[in-house]
Write a structure and sequence with these properties.
mainly beta, Methanol Dehydrogenase, Chain A, Cytochrome Bc1 Complex, Chain D, domain 2, five-stranded mixed sheet, four-stranded antiparallel sheet, about 10% helix, about 30% strand, globular
Length: about 675
């Protein structure tokens, strides 16, 4: 048997399999082997793990399931009773040869389950689980925490990060290691440094008491031999205005190398200084050994949303390709002070274009081009790391979703070639001065909701739906329920009670600070924590107006293709071997525009059989198999829904399978549902 025992295939994060049964010569014969349907809708994005004959995975509502790897038949289900939501991308497995544990996240809880039965192991934490909110900050139990990507196992430790809110209040993104047997915290690393710790002076004094995020939500990689764990962190709150966190903000937007046994920092590299663009490190890094001047170097590669690939000697953090601090324009927003420079590697060159000009606008039709041109001339477009400004939209290209995204890349350890998909769609963003003397509903909306749904409540559909007509689509109780439990990419605000929830719902549905309706559940619910009532008027003087994709009137990207690509880069030299469009719009393909590429989410895997497997594409709903040497498509398998997750491959009873989670969560206009689909060669 050949397992897929960790998120990303192994602790190295390399998404590589040595299996060769499915190869370049026979992949065209691949057929569906089994399918497990789930009558649920949601944004799971799971890369399942396969141990022996059993596959472990999530359903969209975050139930944990065990399936037979040969038939897809369900063996057991664990239902925590928590109304889970949002992306959960994987889980971890630990064994000492005598006993085993499945370590799974369900929102803010980390569970230890018996892999044979799915039952919680009572000796772990409190009745089989630990609350990840505890210990972050005195009031952290009132704040949003969710284990989006799984922890990583080192000896008898499970090392975890978490997803959190991207506006205040938000807890600090401490990295913690728990004992796999007891659930006791063994060490913690402060990503927002405390007094006396390295990086403390890169923040305002006492920022550790109030600043938040700088969290690891994308997953870890582990060098087991060296005992080093690698942690990519995200940005600090708030994402787009940093006047209250002036300085470089270590260890936000940083690749950290820690001693896995103790949490001691070994080295670090900050990829974005004082991030005001939401340029989180978006994916698990990958370990690779490269050849340089006839010498083998153990390296690590970290993709970024900007499209850069940073490659370091993983033992000491020395760059394998020169990195220079390049100057960028300063911010003109009052109170803000952007970094004068940002680090950029000389090689590999970026995965995507770094600036949008009139020459890069769509020519799909003459009408679309003219519309895009007129819109473009109302924007500011000056390339990478240009700070957002007040009152005029700024082009962000690549967009807020990359460049590289959470799916990360795959490495062939035999060659040192790195395979990674990327998005190449322009977005816009701007800032607006907070309304003076706003009421409680508006203050809460602007603080918690406006960054996604816009200050005008119009959102950026389909990713960020409009709330203008929310009252026609949902009852007041349903809106309150979504706020409390979250949905898709939206975090939960489970701590919000009266009077704030009622005023927030009133503002969401009316756009005004009208008093809540008398029959509001919140009007008689639990009192809202002071941490949310104490948002002072003007405390964040400038607000992000919302995520806006630059789309033409028919909903296609307003920049020219490719809109998504798959790339092969030789990390020995930093040179590209090939680059191909990834994905298509079926309706455009029918008109002869088949090589456009599309937005893509979820990453590739690579096998010793010479194949790169990837789903990722939203609109064509296919699993793709490409020749790893050339990028030529050798096979495509139809999927019931979009394959916006990373596939896995494994072997049971001498047969190799490739499995992927499918879901239409990113295409709300399409029929909703989810299914795991496995492919194999015919007998």
């Amino acid at each position: 048997m050949q397992s897929w025992s960790s998120y990303g295939g192994s602790a190295r994060g390399d998404r590589y399999s040595p299996l060769t049964q499915i190869n370049r010569q026979n992949v065209k014969s691949l057929r569906a082997a089994w399918r497990f349907n789930m009558p649920e809708a949601g944004d799971t994005e799971t890369n399942p793990i396969i141990i022996g004959r059993t596959m472990f995975a999530y359903t969209p509502s975050l139930k944990v399931i065990a399936l037979d790897g040969v038939t897809g038949k369900q063996r057991w289900t664990f239902d925590s009773g928590i109304r889970g939501s949002g992306p959960h991308r994987g889980m971890a497995y630990w064994t000492d040869g005598r006993q085993s544990r499945l370590l799974v996240g369900v929102m803010n809880y980390l569970y230890a389950l018996d892999p044979d039965s799915g039952k919680p192991i009572a000796g772990f934490g409190a009745q089989g689980r630990v609350d990840l909110r505890i210990g972050l900050r005195d009031n952290a139990a009132n704040e949003y925490v969710s284990l989006t990507s799984p922890g990583i196992v080192f000896k008898d430790l499970i090392i975890v990060g978490f997803r959190t809110a991207e506006t205040k209040p938000s807890p600090p993104g401490d990295i913690r290691a728990y004992d796999v047997r007891t659930g006791v915290v063994r060490w913690s690393f402060h990503t927002v440094p405390h007094p006396g710790e390295l990086g403390y002076d890169s923040w305002p004094a006492n920022a550790w008491k109030t600043s938040g995020a700088a969290n690891v939500w994308a997953g870890f990689a582990l060098d087991e031999k060296r005992g080093m764990v690698y942690a990519p962190t995200g940005s600090a709150v708030a994402d787009f205005y940093g006047g209250d966190r002036l300085g470089d903000d270590l260890f936000a937007n940083t690749l950290l190398a820690l001693d896995a046994a103790s949490g001691r920092r070994i080295w670090h590299f900050q990829v974005v200084h004082h991030d005001i663009w939401d340029r989180d490190l978006p994916s698990q890094p990958s370990l690779v050994t490269v050849k340089r001047n006839g010498r083998a170097i153990d390296a690590i590669v970290q993709p970024t949303k900007q499209g850069d690939l940073f490659v370091f000697d993983r033992s000491n953090g020395k760059p394998l390709f020169p990195i220079t601090e390049r100057p960028y324009p300063g911010s003109d927003t009052p109170g803000e002070r952007s970094s004068a420079t940002q680090p950029r590697p000389s090689l590999p060159r970026p995965l995507v274009r770094q600036a949008l000009t009139e020459d890069d606008l769509t020519v799909r039709t003459a009408q679309a081009h003219e519309w895009a041109l007129q819109q473009f001339r109302t924007f500011r477009s000056a390339g990478a790391f240009v700070p957002l400004t007040v009152g005029k939209p700024t082009i962000v290209f690549p967009g807020f979703d990359g460049g590289a995204e959470w799916g990360g890349g795959a490495v062939d350890p035999r060659t040192g070639v790195f395979y990674i998909n990327a998005n190449e769609v322009a977005w816009t963003g701007s800032l607006v001065k907070r309304t003076a003397h706003a009421g409680l509903g508006q203050v809460l909306y602007e603080t918690l909701c406006a960054s996604c749904h816009g200050v005008d409540r119009k959102g950026s559909p389909p990713a960020f739906p409009s709330l203008v007509d929310a009252a026609r689509r949902l009852s007041q109780r349903q809106i309150e329920d979504v706020i409390h439990t979250g949905r898709g990419r939206m975090p939960s605000f489970a701590n919000m009670g009266s009077p704030g929830l009622g005023y927030l719902v009133s503002y969401v549905t009316t756009g005004s600070d009208a008093a809540p309706r008398a029959n509001s559940v919140a009007s008689g619910g639990p009192e809202m924590p002071q941490s949310l009532l104490s948002v002072e008027d003007g405390s964040a003087p400038y607000l992000f107006t919302g995520y806006d994709k630059f789309l033409d009137p028919e909903g296609y990207p307003a920049n020219s293709p490719p809109w998504g690509t798959l790339n092969a880069i030789d990390l020995n030299t930093g040179r590209y071997l090939w680059r191909v469009p990834l994905g298509s719009y079926p309706e455009l393909a029918a008109r002869g525009l088949a090589k456009t590429g599309t937005e893509n989410y979820g990453g590739p895997i690579v096998t010793a059989g010479g194949l790169v497997f990837i789903g990722a594409t939203i609109y064509d709903r296919k699993l793709h198999a490409l020749d790893s040497r050339t990028g030529r498509t050798l096979w495509e398998g139809e999927l019931p829904y979009s394959g916006t997750a990373t596939p896995a491959t494994y072997m049971v009873d001498g047969k190799q399978y490739v499995v992927i989670l499918t879901s239409n969560a990113r295409t709300r206009s399409a029929p909703q549902g989810a299914a795991y689909v496995a492919f194999a060669l015919p007998d």
